[in-house]
Amino acid sequence: MKRFCFALFLPAVLTCFSHRAAAQPASNSVAPPTATAPVPTSEEKNQAGYEKHTREVLNDLKLEDAARIAKVHDIMVAQFADWKAWHAKNDAQLKELWAEYGKARNTKNQTNIDNAMSPIDAVYATFKPQHDAFKAKLAAVLNPEQIETVENTLTAGQLPRTYNAYGEIFHGLTEGQKAFILKKLKTARAEAIDAGTKDEKAAFFKKYKDQIEAYLTAQGYDVKQSYKDFVAKQKAKKAATQPDVKPAAGDKE
Fold first, then answer.
1. Can you tell me the distance from the alpha carbon of 77 to that of 22, in angstroms, rounded to the nearest whole number?
2. Is 219 left (phi over 0), alpha (psi -120 to 50) or beta?
3. Lowest-confidence range among 5-14, 82-91, 105-114, 180-189?
4. CA–CA distance, 148 with 171 (Å, rounded to integer)
5. Is residue 58 a contact partner of residue 71, using CB atoms and an 8 Å limit?
6. 96: burial class by Cβ within 10 Å (0-12, 13-18, 19+)?
7. Which strand (E) or helix (H) includes residue 133?
8. Domain coordinates of the chain in residue numbers?
9. pLDDT tens digits, 214-237
């Protein structure tokens, strides 16, 4: 009788163990390798940069015509590629020349400044064919106001910002004086769009700011005092708009 009971019990035990074994993963199993994202090539990184900067231009233009958007896109991407290739060949030389220009500018001697700027202009003259072709391609798709939008985007809006600041700093500017300032700033912008860095773009604007301020001095403005008055006014305005902060409970006044 005992042997009969054991015979009945044994299949049930084996079935139980087989279920437990199936429920547990094998200790020797190997997990599948994790897929790694492919490392982008330098060309792919460059292309991503061209697309990013092109989107910035298109966002500011706010074009609605798909065909024009596509044309401006292709023009901008091609220009960024030409621009990067040119800077790869010339940036080492330009870095040294801009350093010399900075030293010359500190002397406040216009002859020294002009002499230091001359070789920089000579280097950038080699990019002029690409610059002119770029402007011609834009002119075939965009109106003059839209081209100015492109130029302002490429120079981080330095022209309108600087022009408006001059109006606040130097009171009573005549229409002729305003026209002179705007013309110089437009020349600065035209040169700065080819620059390789933010600092270099700013340097082109400084070049023409110096000329504007020399002009305003000749026009009877006290440039240094005008700047001091403007800074003092801005500080007073900021102080007036800041809320009074009361001491917290328990703090000593």
1. 59
2. alpha
3. 5-14
4. 26
5. no
6. exposed
7. helix 128-139
8. 155-235
9. 999 999 999 999 999 999 989 988
